[in-house]
Amino acid sequence: MNIGRASKLSGVSTKMIRYYEQTGLIPKAARHNSGYRDYDDADVHRLRFIRRSRDLGFTVEQIGGLLDLWADRSRASSDVKSFALGHIERLKEKMTEIEAMVRTLESLADHCHGDDRPECPIIDGLAENDGDSLRPKRREPQRFGRPGGQSARHHGGAAKVTL
Amino acid sequence: MNIGRASKLSGVSTKMIRYYEQTGLIPKAARHNSGYRDYDDADVHRLRFIRRSRDLGFTVEQIGGLLDLWADRSRASSDVKSFALGHIERLKEKMTEIEAMVRTLESLADHCHGDDRPECPIIDGLAENDGDSLRPKRREPQRFGRPGGQSARHHGGAAKVTL
DNA sequence: TTTGCGGCTTCCCACGATGGGAAGGTCAAG
DNA sequence: CTTGACCTTCCCATCGTGGGAAGCCGCAAA
């Protein structure tokens, strides 16, 4: 089957499938005479494995390890388990960090009246500043261009978790 | 003062200070005759504001908004508060996502004996596969080079939260 | 004064995972 | 045969950060 079909069946974009091949996460696909990549059910299965692993927050590099563990029918289940447990630990650390941010922000926000007056403990907290002796001048209307750029929207989508 | 001093005082790396200037997050620094950038206390203060905002998980673009809010002494505190509240929401979404990953992984790990036998519900869960009819062939010893790369270690540091 | 060193400058490259898009080849249906 | 959907490769951008080179600057010790 073609890459588009494999993509639909696995939930991995064609871009990513080619990328995974390029980086060696998956073996080079077979090719039709035309040059089109050809996938079979086992390939799709592997791609689904990869997608599920990504959904669980593993990096591509870690997934390389998982694929090896999957392929190795003689490795101990404890190897897999410790891999998973280590990942859980990392995820929990991340949660803890975010939790700390939330706590800080909430305590700041709790003290903010949120009315039309300008005094704001949130900004003061970020500035560690009660007066405004050091309040900066207004930034000149910066259209937020990257180094030489002309602004691009392109993916202002859903929250993502990058580890 | 020089950029290195401002960096030490603010906790923002010199690389980042220049980057923030380049992207317009901060105004172009004054220069000595030598061409060296020159910072004053207000600049350092702004950098500290930026660093604290980053630590709270705001993106650089959002910090642009925060700086504007800080500079605008006539804006309502409710503007700041809704900004902060929105951010808290995004943070919580992220926590929820990670929590889901952890729950899934833990339930998988709970069923794994973690002994020296190979049967492993974790791998099976990722593969959605109870037998091993579709178990992939071993990946050829891939030294995990990027497209053309010769591997780089470079920052294998602490867990970070990227939003 | 020369030498040396550390700090500064700009410029380019890399990371990880992903998407956009251009230029061109292929295939099946009409 | 044309059309349109699909495929190929190649390059570029994202976001925030660091690495490192090549070259200038400033200060202090020899």
Automatic annotation (TrEMBL), chains A, B:
<keyword id="KW-0963">Cytoplasm</keyword>
<feature type="region of interest" description="Disordered">
    <location>
        <begin position="124"/>
        <end position="163"/>
    </location>
</feature>
<keyword id="KW-0805">Transcription regulation</keyword>
<keyword id="KW-0238">DNA-binding</keyword>
<dbReference type="InterPro" id="IPR047057">
    <property type="entry name" value="MerR_fam"/>
</dbReference>
<dbReference type="GO" id="GO:0045893">
    <property type="term" value="P:positive regulation of DNA-templated transcription"/>
</dbReference>
<feature type="domain" description="HTH merR-type">
    <location>
        <begin position="1"/>
        <end position="69"/>
    </location>
</feature>
<dbReference type="GO" id="GO:0005507">
    <property type="term" value="F:copper ion binding"/>
</dbReference>
<dbReference type="InterPro" id="IPR009061">
    <property type="entry name" value="DNA-bd_dom_put_sf"/>
</dbReference>
<dbReference type="InterPro" id="IPR011789">
    <property type="entry name" value="CueR"/>
</dbReference>
<dbReference type="GO" id="GO:0003677">
    <property type="term" value="F:DNA binding"/>
</dbReference>
<feature type="compositionally biased region" description="Basic and acidic residues">
    <location>
        <begin position="132"/>
        <end position="143"/>
    </location>
</feature>
<dbReference type="GO" id="GO:0005737">
    <property type="term" value="C:cytoplasm"/>
</dbReference>
<dbReference type="Pfam" id="PF13411">
    <property type="entry name" value="MerR_1"/>
</dbReference>
<protein>
    <submittedName>
        <fullName>Cu(I)-responsive transcriptional regulator</fullName>
    </submittedName>
</protein>
<dbReference type="InterPro" id="IPR000551">
    <property type="entry name" value="MerR-type_HTH_dom"/>
</dbReference>
<keyword id="KW-0804">Transcription</keyword>
<dbReference type="GO" id="GO:0003700">
    <property type="term" value="F:DNA-binding transcription factor activity"/>
</dbReference>
